[in-house]
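Progress against Task 2.4 (sequence-to-structure conversion) is shown through the following example record, which the project officer requested during the mid-term review.
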Amino acid sequence: MSKRQHHGGAWKVAYADFATAMMALFLVLWLTAQDSRIKEAVERAFRNPFSSATKESVGIIPNQDATATHAERGEFDSTSAVQLELLRRITEDLAKLLEENPENQDTVKMELTPEGLRIQVFDHSQKPIFKPHGVEFTPYGDWVFSTLAWELSRYKTFIVELEGHTESHTAAAEEAYGPWELSADRANAARRKLVGYGVGDPQIAKVSGLSDTQPMPGKTADAEINRRVTVLLKIKTGSRVETGSTSPTAGPKT
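Structure tokens generated for the chain above:
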């Protein structure tokens, strides 16, 4: 009687390869059916699997500890991780553009909030954004807002809100033209600059002047730091992420 022939375990290896290939096929089919937000999130997860999906920035340097604090308070529950990741990416891209000049550190502050990305542009006397008591940009102010516009114009998902602020007792050229008018006109000048450099006019949702009614936290109303324009980016409810080229070859230069 002959012994039973032993065929080995080669079939097990072939079956495992087949199962792995089918799993990969299903994953590819699932991914191709998703919208651009999911695809971008998956791409970034594979590129850097240990990066946080949400970060907050103070100044132009990302602050990793602040995100954990907000997450513990549940302030980001209403915004998806994908949307926050996109805001974080914009923050980092802007930081790279601005941090080349140390003076920008005191001019532009960025902060992730439950509302979106808040960008504060300060009009310091030593590095003014606007010409004194007026709405005309200085060359430096023109560069700052054109840089912001160049970056923000790549993303059509956001709506933009602009707020003008002043310190109290702001000098005025005419008695009838005071802090309310100046803050509103500077916010509107910022709107025109953003639109002129590529931000879509339909993205602008609000332009307002708040005079000296909202001083910076911990500062008195007459402090110079209150003289600023705030740019707030909010993601449209129910919208899909739309971006331009993610690897631009050129941008504004100082």
